[in-house]
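Q: My labmate handed me this sequence with no annotations at all. I'd like to see what the chain might look like in three dimensions before we decide whether it's worth expressing. Could you predict it?
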Amino acid sequence: MSNETPVGQASALFDQLIQSTAEEQDKSDQILGEPDNRSEDSQEKRVSSTDDEPNFRLAPEARRALIRLMRQGVVNAKSNSAVFETLRRYQAPIQEHLAEMYLKMVLDPQAGIALLQEQAMEDLESEDEEPVSLISRRTLSVYDTLLLLVLRKYFQERESAGEQQVVIDIDHIESLLTPFLPLTNSSRSDRRNLNGALDKMKERKILTGSKDGERFEITPVIRYVVNADFLQEMLASYLSLAGKPVGEEPSETEGSSDDE
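A: Here is what I predict for the chain of 260 residues:
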């Protein structure tokens, strides 16, 4: 069986995954209530009437929070509680401001994250409208793509088990990747490749690392990057390519350090 087509598709997988979850994230945008103070209400009304007042401006604190979001792509309430709260408070005017640039903010109060995304085509006011992308697209290697998929699967399993904070150690990550290594020209002992890929996930705020570099928390951001149905489809394809029966996915304890 030729690996060319499915593996070639993986080079642009990160972009496809983000687009595949756009519809699901629209629902989370509506979770929050309206601001509970009059000055903020008047701010939102003033911003929403852009046809009458084309030179509207966001409140200074909202502008600062928005700049932080646009620079980082993700704001986490754990590490930036003040910025996250400002984004929550001014959610409506910020959304309207971002829409002018074909962008949107996904705000998940339960997970405590705010995420910048491009608008989906169905969000556009006109079918003839052609959005201009302001978000730099990042292409993942096959190795990085597989890492993203196994982390998403592990996060899904632990979250379903009721864990509020999903932590995984580097040896367990390595064991989850092992069945796919024939596709990556790598080996289980190649820790340099794994460390480099983990660093990329930390840059994207998908992981946060411990001081010793051996344990990582998988952040809820991964939910908005990989759709659960798409996850199963891709893992099945890669397992098939790697010569492993589709139904025989790597288990949570397969090859983990606890069993050695």
